[in-house]
Amino acid sequence: MARRLHKQRYLLDFALSSLWRRKGKNLALLGVYSLLVFVLASVLFFTQALKREAALVLAASPELIVQKLAAGRHDLIPAAYAERLREIRGVSRVSGRLWGYYYDARVRANYTVMAPEEVAVPEQAVLVGAGIARGRHLSRGSTLTFQGYDGTPRAFQVRGVLSPESELLTADLVLMAAADVRRLFGLAEGLYTDLTVAVNNPREVATVAAKIQELLPDTRPILRDEIRRTYEAAFDWRAGILLSVFSGALLAFLIFAWDKAAGLSAEERREIGILKAMGWETGEVLQLKFWEGAVVSLTAFFMGTLAAYLHVFVAAAPLLAPVLQGWSVLYPRFRLTPFIGLFEVAILFFFTVVPYTAATIVPTWRAAGLEPDQVMRS
Amino acid sequence: MVRKSTLFFAFLTTVVLALGLALGEARLRVRGELPYLRQEVMVVKTLQLTDLCLATEARHTRHPSQADWHSAFQSHPAALDHFPSGSIIPPPENVRRGYGPQAP
Asked: Do B43 and A162 touch (CB under 8 A)?
């Protein structure tokens, strides 16, 4: 056993010397390989963190939302609809949500204005999200002026800034009293943006939704489960788009790695020939090439993965976050919770280290099986 | 003179330890951030929120789960969605499967 270990160590020494002899080519390969692992790992960590956080927090979103549609567009829903929904068996509670969008021309940003049911906001006062506070330099006591639907400026006193910890949900929120929302947007009493419906038995939500659509055909019920699946698909889509953007780099790397590993250079073939002529067995040549591949791929894997961890969870993904933000003027500062474990690292290892190491072995196995004089002459 | 394999093993041990530390730190951070996550859950519950604030440029990217079928093409008939974030946020589940409630 000890002899075998010693032998493998000598082979590793030889492999490292052999790699160092062609250091220009191998360092370039290592750089590209590490960069590729970094990109793959960053996308994996980033989407995984957002997906898990979305699933966790949106599990508390309303069970069922009912919107009214008019000419295919979202329309205001009358309070009378709520009365009809309460008559459906299994429905325990129906409440109206009052919310809308406000475009702030001063900072060219869109806000989500909302009248919370369970948070008491005094009239002519607002609570603002941390994104707005940052964009408009607001703090408790500042005044925020909105232009009403009729052009009248309406001033609100900032009563507080929503916690920066919840910025992923509240960066663009403006909370105000229901009466203020109605005055700002010119909404008549008895009209809501949409309705939330609570159902006694969670297993009956789909049945209740079907009943709602039958009872009120101009409405559209949205299930909590659909919200969850929307976000799951959104992050898978994003990961796919990011990966397709980087697929050019991936293909370039594959060609590079294939050229390096599969197309053994004349020098490498000569090296194999000499080793065989000196008495090395086919198995030993293969072991040597395995070590060469393992050194390169393990180094690239660890360097790329560690750099990706630092990029995503320490530096808050500065290279990936702009992809999410698009034209948004207000966007949250990401505080990504590192929902990663051995499983994600193992997936990454399997998809980056194993193919390269295998690609190094196969062509060598073909060359190493030949007679030394044949290899050196070819 | 130090053998090359010794140097390589030293390097490998360092990076394996660093990755182990990173994963350990990730676990601790998840545990440490549980109060914040609970706070986020409370915010969603209290304010009855439905979406993450990822992109605020258009209503179909601010509230993808609430957007109607036409919001991405709102400018004029046959207008293509021109918001950059519209290309990275796919149509929501209910748009892809139809308005009607579906059995899970």
From this structure: yes
pLDDT per residue as tens digits for the range A179-236: 999 999 999 999 999 999 999 998 999 999 999 999 999 999 999 988 888 888 777 7
d(C-alpha A289, C-alpha A11), whole Å: 9
| Consecutive H or E run containing A209 | helix A205-215
Asked whether residue A226 is domain-assigned, the answer is no
Range of the domain at B85: 33-95
Chain A touched by B36 (CB under 8 Å): yes
Return the HEC string of A115-143. Answer: ECCCCCCCCCEEEECHHHHHHHCCCCCCE
The answer for residues whose C-beta is within 8 angstroms of residue A148's C-beta and 6 or more apart is A154, A183, A184, A185, A186
**Whether residue A262 sits in one domain with residue A161:** no
What's the CA gap between A263 and A274, in Å, rounded?
A: 18
Q: Verify whether the Cβ–Cβ distance B54 to A332 is below 8 Å.
A: yes
Under DSSP, the state recorded for B54 is: S
> How far off is chain A from B98, nearest CA to CA, in Å?
10
Instruction: Please check whether residues A105 and A47 belong to one and the same domain.
Output: no
Distance CA A368, CA A135 (A): 66
Domain-embedded: residue A247 = yes
User: What mean pLDDT is predicted for residues A293-308?
Assistant: 93
Distance of CA A167 to the CA centre of its chain: 16
Nearest CA in chain A to B96: A230
Which band of pLDDT confidence, cut at 50, 70 and 90, is reported for residue A257?
Answer: low
Could you tell me how many CB contacts below 8 A there are between chain A and chain B? 244
**Residues of the domain holding A345:** 10-58+232-377
